[in-house]
Every structure is written in C-alpha cells, then in structure tokens.
Amino acid sequence: MDRSPLYVEFEEHQGALVLVPRGVLDSLTYGDLRSLVLKAAVDEPRAVIVDVDRLVVPDPSAYSLFSSLCTQLAQWPGVPLLVAAGDERRRAGITDYRLARYLPVHESVETALASAHRPPVRRLARRVLPNSMVSASLSRQYVRDLCLDWEVVSCVESAVLITNELVENTLLHTYCAPSLRLELRRGLLTVAVYDDDPALAEPVRPDTGHAGRGGLALVADLSVTWGCSRTLAGGKVVWAVLRA
Prior knowledge:
This protein is α/β, with parallel strands linked by helices and about 240 residues long.
C-alpha cells in the first residue's frame, strides 16, 4: 500500500513552535506526525501549536492523536500542546469527536498563543560532558551537588543513579559526547541526557542469572516515568522524571 503524503512546515511565533501539516492524516501518517510533534517539544518552546486547517482527515478518530500527545507532553517536557483550526466546520467536527474535553481547539494560531499560560517557575541546569568514561563520575557529582543546592534531597540518590545509567549508556553504545540537563518544576525533577546518535535507547532483557537490575530497567524502577525521543537535530534524548 502506498504511503499517504504528509508534509509539515515549521514556523516560530513569539517563542512557540507552530507545525503546519499538509496532506492526509490516517493510519499511515499518524506515527509520522506524532514523531514530529514530540521532536518539536524536546527543545522546550513556549508551546507547540498544530494548525490543522490543511489536513485531510478521512476518519475523525485520527484526531485522538492530539489528546494522547497532550497527556504525554504534560509529563515531559511540560510543554503545552495547542490545536488551531480556522475553519468553523472543522472545529465543530473536532469538538463533536470530544477532543475538546482534553484539548481546546482555537480559532487561530494567534488565539492559541494568547491562551498559552506563562510557564511555571522552574530551575534549569545544563552541562556538556566529554566523550570519555570520566563523564560518568563527573555527572554523578554534578547531579549530587545540584540536588543539594536545589534542596531536593529526598530524590538525590535516585537522580544520581539514573544519571549514571543514562550517561554510561551513551558512552557505551554511541560515539557521542553526552549532554546532561536537569529541570525542577512543580515538584518534579527531570534528568535528561542528549546525544547525536539517532538510534533510540531500548531496555535490554535482563539476564536471569544476574543479580540486581541495571541500565534502563533500573531507570524505569526509580522514576515516575521515563522515555526516549528523537530531536529535531537528528539525535535523541533519554529522560526520566522523579518526585522531588
């Protein structure tokens, strides 16, 4: 079966990233659009706005894509997802499908921007690490010191362990220098490690004869939620969220 054509333009408006998809949204392109929205959110713009006026949607159930994305982006990176539809009949059709229960549909990109609330107060720190195994110890100490400085002592040990696993994962499985990012917002601490390798990180089935758990299995055990997303630059970010 031939793939349905779908093209997406990116525009920046007042710190928000606007996606303008053109073509057909169906079972063949659903995953492509989902991936592009997630990539757009990784760099944490003020908001991600999807202008759906140029989309052809044969089955209205495809609009559920945006409600599921809204839930996912609320977990991380905390970027609001907004939908704009200038055509009144299209807005009514989306609302009839009850998408608006989870995600209001705005008349224009401008009204969507106006509805984007000021982001909550947050603390943010970044550090680019060398492409060397010394980065593991550097990152552990950096995270420990930062957690103490931010007074989030309840999760410091988990944050250090997660950081160690993510940094070592980059060093062992790619040829890239890891970049570490920590964010504290709304009582949640996010640890994220970026690299330039496009291959997504996946958990490895643990050896039943090996005591203990490590790698991404340990990350999953210690965090509220975690994930891996590609970036618009072509690399990826692996992130984990902890209660602070």
